Amino acid sequence: MTDREMKLKSVYLRKSLLKYIYKAKAGHTGGSLSCTDILNVLYNRVLNVDPKNFKNPDRDRYIQSKGHCVEALFVTLANRGFFPESDLETLCQYQSHYIGHPTKKVNGVEQNTGALGHGLPICVGEAIAAKLDNKTHRVFTLLGDGELPEGSNWEAFLSAYHYKLDNLYAILDYNKQQITGSNEEVMNTGSVRDKLETFGWSVKEVDGHDLKELEAALNNGPFETGKPNFIVAHTVKGKGVSYMEGNIKWHHGVPSQEEYELAQSELTEAEAEI
Amino acid sequence: MKKYIDQGKNDTRSGYGAGMTELGRTNPNVVALCADLVGSLKIQTFIDENPERFFQVGIAEANMMGIAAGLTIGGKIPFTGTFANFSTGRVYDQIRQSIAYSDKNVKICASHAGLTLGEDGATHQILEDIGLMKMLPGMTVINPCDYNQTKAATIAIAEHHGPVYLRFGRPKVANFTPVDQKFEIGKALMLNEGTDVTIVATGHLVWEALIAAETLENQGISAEVINIHTIKPLDDEAILKSVKKTGCIVTAEEHNYLGGLGESVARVLSTQHPTPQEFVATNDTFGESGTPEQLMEKYGLNNKAIVEAVLSVLKRK
């Protein structure tokens, strides 16, 4: 896939996730738009996963700790061939497998997530298991910045350093906003980079909407032998839709018909410019 | 009645340690985790023999549960070890979301359960853990009665696919079950057949139930004693069969009456065969400091309390 096709795919994924959120009248819109580029790069340039043989024990692992942004994950998996995109017509509906947080009932989903602060500890276990069996696959997780204050994350930061898990990659979707307001207002984490480096991780900062930068960081690990990898991906909540960008209302907001049509037309314009 | 011989007092946590030693030698997928309580959980031999399969996580129980869940994705069978309090209440969200809801093959092994932890007092004496764990869909809950049975249970749960809560204790207690007795999850054990009353006991209270049955026999009362080591899934059939014969029942456990074995038994009886029941359990309270014997006496969890409960339930037949 060319770089241009990758860019087009990001726009397509944004249009698609908005479509299903609009239809379901539910979803985490702002956060899904902020991590769309990260998921696009992961599933189309980084992860060694096979939709036809997902259970291959040598697959790279991806666990989405910020499970509430499941819409971005579902459209990316569908687009990658894990299931027909039309399945998402039932998103968040009664008896659908495509519920409001990731579930293993969906092909391609590694782990049920949704309670925050769970993804990283599980990935530590997976990374330990890989080392124990001398496997070379990598383990990735996507953290939301709002879940950083969960103590279990900091317990996991310690243990990943202790066990020298250089096969572990934690990506922070750093849009700097959460449901109540800015990270700084809700719980000021200060410099994430400084804290993670102090905890013994190797840290890179990237533009989380720059596909080339993301790919370069995610595909060129370990950053330092024997150290777990932390990628601070600077993002914008609601990325791609002008009136949603940086507006906390869209954390859990669902667009009206007029807003939906405006969002789609903005994305169509963006597509034309690529 | 049948005589049971104490083969020499021993702690159930050492039974866990012995079971882990055997699993270390026989099952290469078994891995052990511990939150800085290696000595208390008696797993040093497992660690010495399998250093690469032991993971010290420090005092970070939530992380231990998450790591265990992740290890199962790599095909391992993780056994987590800490006190019962920190194996359940402290990490309930991790167990609920990442283990039970995600159907992870994690064995949550919990020592120092109940009042018999003794001197350290209420913060560490959890009396609510059976309730917490049995409410989780898919969770198996086991509370063995002595060293031999705890060792056998430890070995047995490695062969069972799915999350398990294995609860055991700190003090040295009578070791009376046969050394070679196979442990069958969910299968109650008939210890003494009787006709007047059924005593269903779990954990440390099983030995007390046997002493109580002897006392009762001397008073001309024939007590049937059943060892319910598995609280979930409960052996409904064994309980129903017994009460249809005796017509009344006493349940005995080192746990709050709310949420424990007694309530599980009451559910079975109320829906299938309503029967007078008395509870030997703590009465919705926290513990305190003291020796195990002092505390079990004060909170009514010994053979004397079981005898009193039997005399009481017999009047309601």
Automatic annotation (TrEMBL), chain A:
GO MF assignments: transketolase activity
Start and end residues of each Transketolase N-terminal domain: 18-258
Superkingdom of the source species: Bacteria
Top-tier EC class: transferase
Keywords: Thiamine pyrophosphate, Transferase
Cofactor: thiamine diphosphate
InterPro entries: THDP-binding (IPR029061), Transketolase_N (IPR005474)
EC number per UniProt: 2.2.1.1
Pfam families per the UniProt record, alphabetical: Transketolase_N (PF00456)
Stated family: Belongs to the transketolase family.
Name of the protein in question: Transketolase
Gene source species: Saonia flava
Lineage, highest ranks first: Bacteria, Pseudomonadati, Bacteroidota, Flavobacteriia, Flavobacteriales
Automatic annotation (TrEMBL), chain B:
UniProt entry keywords in alphabetical sequence: Thiamine pyrophosphate, Transferase
Domain of life: Bacteria
Record-linked InterPro entries: PDH/Transketolase (IPR051157), THDP-binding (IPR029061), Transketo_C/PFOR_II (IPR009014), Transketolase-like_Pyr-bd (IPR005475), Transketolase_C (IPR033248)
Cofactors named for this entry: thiamine diphosphate
Residues spanning the membrane: none
The keyword Transferase appears for this protein: yes
GO molecular function, one term: transketolase activity
Domain (Transketolase-like pyrimidine-binding) ranges: 10-175
Keyword Metal-binding: no
Pfam families: Transket_pyr, Transketolase_C
Enzyme Commission identifier(s): 2.2.1.1
Family affiliation: Belongs to the transketolase family.
Name the record gives this protein: Transketolase
Source species: Saonia flava
Taxonomy of the source species: Bacteria, Pseudomonadati, Bacteroidota, Flavobacteriia, Flavobacteriales
